[in-house]
Design goal:
Blueprint (H helix, E strand, L loop, with lengths): L2 E11 L8 E3 L5 E15 L2 E8 L8 E3 L4 E8 L7 E4 L25 E7 L5 E7 L9 H10 L8 E4 L15 E5 L4 E8 L5 E6 L4 E6 L2 E8 L2 E3 L4 E7 L6 E9 L11 E7 L20 H9 L19 E13 L11 E7 L8 E4 L4 E8 L8 E5 L4 E8 L18 E2 L1 E4 L3 E8 L4 E7 L2 H6 L2 E6 L21
Parallel strand pairs: 1-12, 2-5, 3-6, 11-19, 20-23, 22-30
Antiparallel strand pairs: 1-10, 2-9, 3-4, 6-8, 7-9, 12-17, 13-16, 13-18, 14-15, 14-17, 18-19, 20-21, 23-28, 24-27, 24-29, 25-26, 25-28, 29-30
This protein binds copper (II) ion.
Copper (II) ion binds next to loops.
Length: about 475
């Protein structure tokens, strides 16, 4: 089988966002990259804006590496603001110094300064990605987001979604801004899909073509044959499809799965799968059937099919004897503003919390080697919705999900301890719960947060601090000689 590899990034237009792909697959090498952060002008949706890019490209450059490699990335900040970069899904054993969250594991790289990240790949295989881990209120959206944070109102919805930086022909001034994937009849293609959208989970499909999902979040899964996927912000998927239809043009399309009642962008981004050869192309390509935006059953049906490959070549090791149990309630809240300090009519503001604590003001300490189970309980204080919960420094097994309140007597009997998926970002169902397991063998400070930017910004975040073990190889590495200074 001849497989072609293509990266596809579902993105969003109108926000400052750096994104790219990190491809990993065996034999340790050191690879070097230079990332120059610079402002570049791009024209989309009838207007020209300056975006902060890496090396002038949007989407950013792809990093290619193999399982076990180390990637050295020297980041030179030639932009106007302090920035950090996160290597999403890379476990970074004993090396939180290069993980990236701003003001959590490092201070920002100032304009004119540089910082060298040491991205240590270990067991990851498949597709991962990198993105800025800096507050997203930058550039021309700064005023809007600053206002949103100060007043506690929802930020404006986005203008468009994009596939590989292109919105597609359903938006104004965009008919010639569409990504075209040329395919040869009979070949099988590998799509590397990243949901880099700021605030919406997405359904994705290709007209008249079946998809075979073979990897998620940098680990193999049992192949899933499907005609659509649901992918949450932060997740990555490796998907095969075979060009086995009549020579023609076919849309691939992506649109939100959204189960809340607040305003959101319900538009559809498109790209075209275009067969090579002689034929007369249709005036309008075939369009795929995407589930309706609020089709929770379709979202859950897909998500529940995801299982680890768990083969001899790709064994898994699901923790059984739990030594540390952590229960985290995940909520959207309203926060009172003393002396009307928020300028809202109600005198309160949007907030978000984990265990009723907002803005990560408490950290959870975990001893080295503890066998951890976290149960996330989604609550319906305020407008309920599902949350893409992301943990840095680990991949973990998603052993169970369910609706309603978690019952610690009956629900564990429903766990999948045979072939649960190994992930770094999960979809915590609306008004439901999710249970994850991992062994705390990575000392450091690790960020845990909702990957919807507006929720993270409002306080749906915290850190897990895993303490050093006894032996040298169980202790956090020394910091690099030159970390960005904090003042
Ligand atoms: Cu959230």
């Amino acid at each position: 089988m001849d497989t072609k590899k293509m990266g596809l990034i579902l993105g969003l237009l109108g926000f400052f966002f750096l994104d790219g792909l990190l491809l990993c697959m065996a034999r340790p090498q050191i690879r070097y990259y230079d990332f120059v952060l610079q402002e570049s002008n791009f024209t989309k949706l009838c207007s020209t804006k300056s975006l902060l890019t890496v090396n002038g490209s949007f989407p950013g450059p792809t990093i290619k590496a193999r399982r076990g490699d180390t990637v050295i990335v020297n980041v030179h900040n030639q932009g106007k603001y302090g920035v950090t970069i996160h290597w999403h899904g890379v476990k970074q054993p004993r090396n939180p110094w290069s993980d990236g969250p701003e003001n959590i594991t490092q201070c920002p790289i100032k304009p004119g300064a540089n910082f060298t990240y040491e991205v240590i790949l270990s067991t990851e295989e498949g597709t991962l990605w990198w993105h800025a881990h800096t507050s997203w209120y930058k550039q021309d959206v700064q005023a809007m987001i600053t206002n949103s944070i100060e007043t506690g109102v929802n930020p404006s919805t986005s203008d468009a979604f994009t596939i590989n930086g292109k919105p597609g022909d359903r938006y104004n001034c965009s008919s010639d801004s569409i990504y075209r994937l040329k395919v040869k009849y009979g070949k099988t293609y590998l799509l590397r899909i990243v949901n880099a959208v700021m605030n919406e989970e997405h359904f994705f499909a290709i007209a008249k073509h079946n998809l075979t999902v073979v990897g998620q979040d940098g680990a193999y899964i049992k192949p899933i044959n499907t005609n659509y996927i649901m992918i949450t912000p932060g997740q990555t998927m490796d998907i095969l499809f075979t060009a086995n239809q009549n020579l023609s043009h076919y849309y691939m399309a992506s649109a939100p799965f959204f189960d809340s009642t607040v305003a959101f962008n319900n538009s559809t981004t498109t790209a075209v799968v275009q067969y090579e050869g002689k034929y007369s192309a249709p005036s309008s390509p075939f369009f795929p059937n995407l589930p309706f935006y609020n089709n929770t059953e379709a979202a859950e049906y897909f998500t529940k099919r995801v299982r680890s490959l768990a083969s001899k070549e790709h064994p898994i090791n699901v923790p059984k004897n739990i030594t540390t149990r952590i229960y985290i309630s995940v909520a959207l809240n309203r926060l009172l503003c003393p002396n009307n300090s928020c300028n809202t009519t109600a005198g309160d503001r949007q907030s978000a919390s984990l265990n009723n604590i907002t803005q990560g003001t408490k950290a959870r300490m975990i001893n080295y080697g503890e066998v951890v189970e976290i149960v996330y309980q989604n609550t319906n204080l305020g407008a309920p919705e599902s949350h893409p919960m992301h943990l840095h420094g680990f991949s973990f097994y998603l052993v169970g999900t369910g609706s309603g309140n978690f019952n610690n007597v009956t629900d564990p009997s429903t766990y999948n301890l045979v072939d649960p998926p190994e992930l770094n970002t999960i979809n915590l169902p609306k008004n439901g719960w999710a249970a994850i397991r991992f062994i705390a063998e990575n000392p450091g400070v690790w960020f845990l947060h909702c990957h919807l930017e507006r929720h993270g910004t409002w306080g749906m975040d915290t850190v897990l601090i895993v303490k050093n073990g006894k032996s040298m190889d169980q202790r956090i590495r020394r910091p690099p000689a030159h970390m960005p200074p904090c003042s």
